[in-house]
Design goal:
With 91 residues, this protein is α+β, with helices and mostly antiparallel strands. It is built from two helices and six strands; from the N terminus they run βαββββαβ. Helices cover 29% and strands 43% of the residues. A six-stranded antiparallel beta sheet has the order 2-3-4-5-1-6, with helices on one face. The protein starts with a strand and ends with a strand.
Length: 91
């Protein structure tokens, strides 16, 4: 699995609203699905600093869709335009 990140995220409410408008949710996880309904990536909102309340959106690409980076980055870019932050990966 590989991961992408959007950080820093200042507002939890804005992040949840943006994620919920872009992706389907299962609890505290948002799912990016392909046309067949197969999950390509799992998005979550992670608190990275309890003192400041800073958060990160983490997108974990499914192993079955390892080559679909562009789809994941496209969603993160759309989120970035709404709530700010910088996109990075785990490479």
């Amino acid at each position: 699995m590989k991961s992408y990140f959007l950080a820093p995220i200042a507002s939890r409410d804005a992040a949840v609203a943006a994620l919920s408008s872009a992706l389907s949710a299962e609890g505290e996880t948002w799912l990016l699905k392909n046309g067949d309904g197969d999950v390509m990536a799992y998005f979550s909102l992670v608190e990275t600093d309890s003192t400041t309340g800073a958060r990160t959106i983490q997108a974990d690409v499914s192993g079955r869709h390892y080559e679909r980076d562009a789809d994941v980055v496209c969603v993160l870019e759309s989120l970035r335009q709404k709530i700010g932050g910088e996109i990075t990966n785990d490479a």
